[in-house]
Amino acid sequence: MEKDRTVNEILEEHYSGYDEDARLGSRHGQVEYLTTVKYMDECLAGADAPAVIEIGAGTGRYSIMLAKRGISVTAVELTSHNIGILKSKLDGTEPIEVYQGNAMDLGFLPDASYDLTLLLGPMYHLYTRADKLRALSEAVRVTKPGGHIMVAYCMNEACVLQYVFGGGNLKSTLDRGMLTPDWRCVSCAEEVFELVRTEEIADLDAELPVDRIKLVASDGPAHYMKALLESMDGFEFDKWMEYHFATCERQDIIGASNHTIDILRKR
Fold first, then answer.
1. CA-wise closest residue to 82 among 130, 26, 19, 148
2. pLDDT band at residue 254, thresholds of 50, 70 and 90?
């Protein structure tokens, strides 16, 4: 990495030119969005006046949706660009507090304060095990005992299949030393996204005072089939979602999803 470009600067540049709302609003993005909301609702079921924190809130797609339901939300986001968009969507009546902050250091927030903690973006941009554990530990710290943590990851095999082979990038990826002999993608800040395998997620969980509830494929094969999903009528897409919800917890295929959500309960 160039010495004058920090990870934060690289992410600020990336998200300043990226339309996350448009991605989640597309048909293939809706699969991820609807799946994430489904499992959020499961985690919040039965909670009386729940408090939610979203760490890495982006432009607020989930935080604002929850706040407009009347749920108390704390939204923490790293990049000023995303915070500006998030705040522009608020009318001032939502029970939401917005902070600029880093997922690895939430010292300004108290322990054991939230029924549900969402960590749906930061793990995409943490490139060492130590940094991942710092972010996860902070997420667990601010969660109430018995509360849930939902952690999103980008998956290794989807990148190999779609970008390396499907995108015709095999030679350039090999020439740059971005693949290990066992086909593990090597990530760094310039590549923006960190890619993992299911066993690495389990290895991180083992270091924390949590129990896994579920590991879910949040979009399954949707990214492989973007054109088909965008061409579907309403009936076909509803049936696709039925299929997706029937299969998104199957561990034999989950590693090939673009994104997963690790659903944890704090002991």
1. 19
2. very high
